[in-house]
Design brief:
Layout (H helix, E strand, L loop, with lengths): L90 E3 L4 E4 L2 E2 L8 E3 L2 E3 L23 E2 L3 E4 L2 E3 L19 H16 L5 H13 L11 E6 L6 H9 L5 E4 L4 H7 L6 E4 L3 H4 L7 H9 L7 E5 L4 E5 L5 E6 L4 H4 L2 E5 L14 H19 L3 H6 L8 H17 L3 H23 L1 H16 L3 E3 H9 L16 H9 L6 E4 L5 E6 L4 H7 L36 E2 L2
Parallel strand pairs: 9-14, 9-15, 10-11, 11-14
Antiparallel strand pairs: 1-2, 2-3, 4-5, 6-7, 7-8, 12-13, 16-18, 17-18, 17-19
Helix pairs in contact: 1-2, 1-8, 2-10, 2-11, 10-11, 11-12
InterPro entries: DUF3631, P-loop_NTPase
Protein name: DUF3631 domain-containing protein
Pfam families: DUF3631
């Protein structure tokens, strides 16, 4: 027996695993594992009972001097093979009182009981070995296999069922319900640093952040429009939080289309654009290229083509990437239409948040981000095949589908919560659009004028006078001297509505608009709200009977409102 051979004992039942021997490589087979012996019998073994392939030989150069004997096995060590590592994963040298970590002597150490996934107690052999990680295939770190645990690689066990990386419980959320737990943690973290306008908005931001981690599986990349009426509403602070939680963030305060073309690839970053009002504001100049790129990037397979390279060849640049844009005032309508919109407000005196400080906020948020990625990255193929039921249609469904998909993957309360947020925020934006979009606002105001007048025909001048007199409307300041007949005709032309000559009761003809010509536009762009109460029909206002009479007799006689030839 040489100095590197393990000591012997009368107990022939302990089978030591095969390890790497310098010049011989790693044996290709391991002996079957016998039943675990008692702790007293684990200090030595018989060399006569061991086959040559079972001899445990320490690698030369790993330790110098006489080899330290491994300590006794713990009663709860299980049936797994012994590799010279103690229950805590460290090599023990009882004679010297020192601990060998990965083959290096570290001095006296008493870690005491270590916390494991199952509770408090000695750290199991499948946990990560502390200290420097030895190279694979060396005696200091031979990977061992235990039933149900998978393979050990450089000190980290990859479970055989593919459910994680062997980290402690809570860092590899893959089981049912763990996704909901991670989303709850993310939601709470965002809520600590930012005051959002509603609970639905907080839900939307949480799901949007999570969706960035499955961009490669999505068909649409929703924008996040963070807008506010003034400074100090928390827009930039929200971007700070997003920067530490989204997938591959790219923060910028001003950029050009050429830069965006070149940073977006097969694994696109998450664009975070602050001070967007300086890009799209009235003093920003021509930014149509950037606006077109952001619009095209909402849907996959909408590349931008440019002449590029020394050979001046047409080159396709992908545009698909999720983006969050923050600024004062609304963004261009085409971007808002493709975005989940957050209308930020200043905090009230009683609303408190946690100050954002990099020294403790960034590690906290990065930890949540890592747990989020660990959960969602293996589910990308699953997400690509999901077709969630959407409570909205058309572009609103395109924008919200990635968020609802994440909620369905998480299960628990998130699917219901996500769809409720989708309905509430979409309806809010429809109402906001009706109140702010000039043409839609004009249709709504004209309907109000017709209802107030109680007539089917209005002279153009009477309609203009009623619109301009509205103190809350924008029509008195429209143009140089307020809304006039020419501007009114231009605004209504896109709806297929125009004025015509009409003859009234006094026999005079004048340009006028009829109620019937607005019915189609009202139904499409500003429909009346439907009463959701079951059994009740939506309120309808019966149109009054037209005044006047049908023309009887020679021209010039009394007649009703008929179209003049």
């Amino acid at each position: 027996m040489d100095s590197t051979s393990p000591t012997t004992n009368a107990d022939p039942l302990i089978a030591w695993p095969a390890v790497a021997v310098p010049g011989q490589g790693t044996p290709s087979a391991r002996t079957p594992q016998p039943e675990a012996p008692s702790p007293e019998a684990g200090t030595s073994r018989s060399s006569a009972a061991d086959s040559p392939g079972d001899r445990h030989t320490e690698s030369a150069g790993t330790e110098h001097g006489p080899r330290s004997e491994p300590g006794p096995r713990s009663p709860d060590s299980g049936d797994g093979p012994r590799t010279g590592l103690s229950k805590s994963g460290d090599r023990q040298a009882p004679d010297s009182g020192n601990t060998l970590v990965g083959g290096a002597e570290t001095g006296d150490r008493d870690d005491g009981p270590q916390e494991t996934a199952a509770g408090t107690g000695p750290r199991s052999a499948e946990s990560t070995v502390p200290g420097p990680r030895p190279a694979l295939g060396t005696a200091a770190g031979p990977g061992t296999v235990e039933p149900g645990l998978g393979t050990e690689r450089a000190g980290t066990v990859a479970p055989a069922d593919g459910s994680g990386t062997g980290d402690r419980e809570g860092t590899s959320p893959r089981r049912s319900g763990d996704g909901a737990t991670v989303l709850d943690e993310l939601r709470a973290a965002i809520d600590r640093y930012v005051v959002l306008p509603s609970e639905e908005a907080l839900t939307a931001v949480t799901l949007w952040v999570a969706a960035t981690h499955i961009q490669s599986a999505l068909q649409h990349a929703p924008r996040l429009a963070v807008v506010g009426p003034t400074k100090g509403c928390g827009k930039s602070r929200l971007l700070d939080v997003l920067h530490e939680t989204v997938h591959s963030p790219m923060m910028t305060v001003n950029t050009s289309p050429a830069v965006i073309f070149r940073v977006i690839g097969k694994n696109p970053p998450t664009l975070l654009v602050d001070e967007a009002d300086t890009i799209f504001g009235p003093k920003a100049g021509d930014k149509e290229d950037l606006r077109g790129l952001l619009n095209a990037g909402h849907q996959r397979n909408r590349p931008a083509w440019r002449i590029s390279g020394p050979e001046q060849k047409p080159t396709s640049f992908p545009t698909f990437a999720m983006a969050a844009l923050a600024g004062i005032g609304d963004l261009p309508d085409t971007i808002m239409d493709r975005a989940v919109v957050l209308r930020m407000q200043k905090r009230k005196p009683g609303e408190r948040i946690t100050p954002f400080r990099s020294r403790y906020s960034v590690p906290e948020l990065n930890a949540v981000r890592d747990r989020l990625a660990t959960w969602l990255t293996p589910l990308r193929e699953t997400a690509a095949g999901l077709v969630p039921h959407m409570p909205v249609e058309d572009r609103a469904a395109d924008t919200w589908e990635p968020l609802v998909t994440v909620a369905d993957l998480a299960d628990s309360h998130w699917p219901t919560q996500a769809r409720a947020a989708c309905l509430a925020m979409t309806r809010s934006e429809v109402l906001q659009d009706e109140q702010t979009t000039l043409k839609t606002r004009l249709l709504r105001d004209i309907r109000r004028v017709f209802d107030t007048a109680g007539t089917e025909v209005l002279r153009t001048q009477d309609l203009l006078a009623a619109l301009v007199q509205d103190a809350e409307g924008p029509w008195a300041e429209h143009g140089t001297n307020g809304l006039n007949a020419y501007h009114l005709g231009n605004l209504l032309r896109d709806f297929g509505i125009s004025s015509a000559n009409h003859r009234f009761d006094n026999g005079r003809q004048a340009k006028a608009y009829t109620r019937n010509s607005f019915l189609d536009a009202w139904a499409r762009y500003c429909p009346e709200p439907v009463d959701p109460t079951p059994g009740r029909q939506p309120r309808r206002t019966a149109p009054p009977s037209p005044t006047g009479r049908l023309p009887i007799g020679p021209p010039g006689g009394p007649a009703g409102p008929t179209r003049a030839r």
